[in-house]
Amino acid sequence: MVDAPLPDPALVVLVGPSGAGKSTWAAARFRAQEIVASDDLRAVVGSGPSDLGASADAFELLDRIVAARTGRGLTTVVDTLGMEPERRRRHLGLARARGLPAVAVVFETPLALVRHRNRIRDRPVPAGVLAGQVRRLVDAAAQLRSEGWDQVRVVAPESAASPPPRPRSAPSSRSHDFGVILQVSRFPWGEEPLAWLTDIARATDEAGLQGIALMDHLIQIPQAGRAWEPLPELWVTLGVLAGLGTRLRLGPLVSPVTFRPAGITAKAAATLDAITGGGTFLGIGAGWWAREHAAYGLPFPSPKERLDGLESAIETIRALWAAGTKPYAGQRVSLPETTGYPRPAGAVPIVVGGTGARSLRVAARLGDGCNVPSDDATLERAIPLLRAECDAIGRPHEDVAVTVLDVPVVGRDRDDAWARVERLRGRAPAGTFAARHHAGPVSDHRDRYARLFERGVSSVFLALPDLSTPEDVLALEPLGSS
Ligand code: CTP
Ligand code: MG
After folding, report:
1. Taxonomically, which superkingdom (predicted)?
2. What pTM, to 2 d.p., does this model score?
């Protein structure tokens, strides 16, 4: 059986006798700075890790470090014997005060193995002391259950050294229509726009990702960069990508209906689909950013009018994509003819972006999918709402795909992920930023996506907050399908 991943950030308190493998376990899973070890602090304030005379100073420091890190919402691993109930409770209280999940990890390493490891150490713990620790562990394990930890994990001896095996997503979760699409939301192309776009697209293809989605804005949005950074026009840029002859699916995520008349969007998407031989998707939404509308001289009506506009747009687009040229008289839109050539090569899914109740209703009634942020709270709310809207009109749930926008910090390893958090977080506290962006190595994201797919998500649109070079994209290969 594979352990569920540990919460992150979290307070993690290790409990086990000397030689149980606590430090080894922690080092395989956490950055050195995240681990607060009494042995290390004895070596800092005393003559070495076994300088027992330095224990009082070391533990005073340890408590201060735990308070400081948990106070900042940072992952903190307490590597001591963990057998003093008072200290455990203090640390637990600090985590509680900050809303950090608290996990106790108990090392049930058999006495014989602990003794053996102890004997071959530089400075063995006296045999009687060790036996006492093993006895106290039994009491500690019992007390832990009633102390109020969010999780009590038991590490069995055979898994004490190596990290738990990562679940590979089942092959079935990789089949047919779902996968990972790179959403490009920043364009640090220097002096070479075309070369940069080409390299990023080829890397996306090589990494086995399903496609590229482009954000549609007129000014770079504050979430993705600074206003003076380049932000190319959507359909021109998709046209460039279409010309590269990759197998990537292409489309906007999300295009506001306030930017272009719906017929023009229908024409652009049909053209893209025709010249690439299919695979286009169309993400559309009501638009949200007043500033870019004002700057470009575009009307920015009330939310209600924009959402009405979204409904009319979808009707218009579908009418123009449909076979034939006959007049169209729909619920909201009438057109004297629907002559639109080229037709899309295949079925172009319309994905409605937005988390509001009305956006979800529009998706359920008129869309082929909805796109929402990937966080748990949103999914817990949006998926049932979408399904209820489907039920209300008798539409099968599987007709409306759930897709998510995920903005992960992906590092080569935990250290690199953390370095990226420090670069990206701006004024946000590091712990908050790291949690929001699930900062971690790509294997963590693969597991997380496998869970999203299990939950009914069919595609993940992945936007790298620090996308810069093709190597950043190639590093996503474990998320690809090939
Ligand atoms: N070890 C091992 N196999 C494991 C875990 C540990 O061979 N699965 C070895 C380590 O290499 C080390 C010794 O056992 O030489 C003790 O492991 P360590 O992780 O240091 O144990 P701790 O529980 O941290 O011990 P202490 O409380 O003394 O720090
Ligand atoms: Mg240790």
Report:
1. Bacteria
2. 0.74
